[in-house]
Structures are given as C-alpha cells and as structure tokens.
Amino acid sequence: MALKIGVIAGDGIGPEVVREAQKVLDASAAKHGFEIDYTEICMGGCSIDRFGEPLTEEAKNKAKASDAVLMGSIGGNAATSPWYRLPPQKRPEAGLLGIRKALNLFANLRPSLLYEELKGACPLRADTAEKGFDFIILRELTGGLYFGERQTIEENGIRKAVDTLAYSDFEIRRAAVKAFEIARKRRKKVTSVDKANVLDSSRLWRKVTEEVAKDYPDVVLEHMLVDNCAMQIVKDPAQFDVVLTENMFGDILSDEAAMITGSIGMLSSASLNDTKFGLYEPSGGSAPDIAGKGIANPIATILSAAMMLRFTFDRDAEADGIEEAIRKVLKEGYRTGDIMSEGCTKVGTEKMGDLIAERL
Ligand code: IPM
Ligand code: MN
User: What torsion do the CA atoms of 73, 77, 83, 88 make, to the nearest 10 degrees?
Assistant: First the structure.
C-alpha cells in the first residue's frame, strides 16, 4: 500500500526545500520498491492569500487523513509582509499552532548532531567541537505558555498583558514517557529542564518526571534549571542525550542547540502524537530573505523525511540510506552557502537534492 504523505510546502524557502525532500523520497521509493501518494495541503501565509485564514478545515482534514505530513516552513517577514497586519489568530503562525493542537502533536523531537565534516562550522571552542555531540531535545508542544489563556487589557490608563503557563500532570507524563522511551534506545539518560526554583508548573513537572522515571530504572534522570541548561549547551553539549522540557523553554533551547551544529539548515524535527502519525519539518524558519534564490540548505528537510520513514513507517533501512547519502555528499565536500568552508564545492538547493538522491 502506498504511503499517504500530506505535503505542506508553505511559505518562504518551504517549497524549494520540500521539493528536494520529495525528490529524495521518490528516489528511495524507486530503490526499495514502495509507492508514495502525496496530497498537497495549503497552510500558513499561502492559505491566508487564498482562503483568508492560515489553516482551513479542509487542510486539517487532509492532514488527519494522511499517515504523515512533510512540511517546509510557514511565515514571512514580520516587518514587511501584510500577513502581520492581521490580528494574531489570523497570522501564518496561528496555522502552525492550530495544526499542532488539532492533531494533538504533543511531542516535538529536535535532534542536535555535530557532523564530523562540519566541525569547522561549529561556533563553539575547537576543543568542545572536537569532542562532538549528539543529543535530542524533546519539547512539549501543545501546552504551557503557547496555549494558556492570554489577554491584553487596559485599566485606569494602564495597559496590561497576561500569558498563562499551565500544565496538567497527564500532559507532562505523556511527554516524559516519550522521552524515556527514546532514551532507552540511545544512551539512557534524560535531562529534564525546568525552572523549579521559581515556577509551580516546573515543580509539578519535576514531580511527574520522577514518577515516570520509576518505570524506567535502566534510564538515568537528572534535573537541570533552564538558565543553567542554556549555559551547558554551549559549554559541554556532549553531556546530553535526551533533553526533556516544556514548550517555551524548548523553543528557545532548540534554536541554541541547532546553531551549535553549524547551521539551522541541518536540523530536522518530528512532532508526534500517541499514534504513528507525525508532522515532519526542518527546525529552521521560512527565511524570506533568501526565498526563491535557490540557495537554501535542503538537508534539514531531507533529514526530516528520513525521520518520517523511521518513526511513522518503520522503514529504518530506507532512513539509514538517506542519512548515509547525506554523509557521503558532505564527505565529498559539497556544501550549501550556510555551511560553506574553504576548499569545499558550493552548490545550490536543487543540486544538493540531486547529489543526495543519486547517492542512495
Ligand atoms: C518553532 C517556531 C514556532 C514556535 C513559531 C513559528 C510559532 O519558532 O517551531 O520553533 O515558536 O513553536
Ligand atoms: Mn522556534
């Protein structure tokens, strides 16, 4: 049976990088003898332009009817795009938050891996880069500040805005369970990141992760305060295996974790619920400044497609094949502009996709 993949090309560099990921998926399908049935889904800015809203019922239903969704990126330049003159709930980002909630995608995985070939592009101290690192951030994605009650009011001439950080035990538990399950298949360590010296939501987070840890005696649980974690990621990233954290902390730490790999253009991500469904997208944004120039790095999106084959479709051999092809291309010295270094061959988006597809 054909794999049913929904495709949200989205805005900015989204369509360019998604095209290359589909090219690589198609090459993998031809090689391993499976079929893919793609359904295009319109979401984000392009959906605002066509339908006046960032996420339509039809788009949600198409995503729900797919086994998995491959996404590029959504959003534009907040200073210049007319999308950002709309009220917040009508902007492109609302589409992304809406689909996360509608599909209950509570676990967002963002791996941070320093490739041997890209050590030179790592902005950390040379001895830290030399040690390498390979960790994964599990960011809770459907709770906390992003989805708590919010309002802006004016009282007696004073303007006041409120955002609420709320977590229920079951939301923490299901994210923690995923983190421990993943750690079990890796180096068996979970670092749970919170701000338990200040926040009640973090104190509950700590209690619940400790309850979950009792079911995983083979996995080590440690707690770390988020400000310290931000420091440790640049000081000694090799200490981490699985980092478990709430939505907002995870948003910030995952950009930091992406940057130390040399480029945000290298990082994949998966957003999962408790079925096999997943939404797979690069960690980076829509990069409107370079959109349409054919220079964006498609590797993060291609790696996201590999994650899809692994997590949703249990096709580990095919996923390994794609990851191996990427390593080969990097070893041969091909680079997009964001990861370019001396002595390498600079290529554009399409060429990078071709090279990877050819090496499968
Ligand atoms: C991300 C993005 C989104 C987030 C934005 C676009 C709403 O930054 O996926 O990390 O904050 O979750
Ligand atoms: Mn972010």
Answer: 80
Which of 100, 163, 251 is the best mutation target for the ligand 1 pocket, counting ligand atoms within 8 Å of the beta carbon and taking the most?
Answer: 251
Q: Please name the fold of domain 123-260.
A: Isopropylmalate Dehydrogenase (3.40.718)
pTM listed for this prediction: 0.95
Q: What number does CATH give the domain 1-109+263-360?
A: 3.40.718.10
Q: Tell the residue nearest (CA) to atom 5 of ligand 1.
A: 93
User: Which residues surround ligand 1 with Cβ inside 6 Å?
Assistant: 75, 93, 96, 251
Domain locations in the chain as residue ranges: 1-109+263-360, 123-260
Positions of the chain with pLDDT under 50: none
pLDDT, tens only, 10-37? 999 999 999 999 999 999 999 999 999 9
Query: CA triplet 137, 26, 289: central angle to 5 degrees?
Result: 55
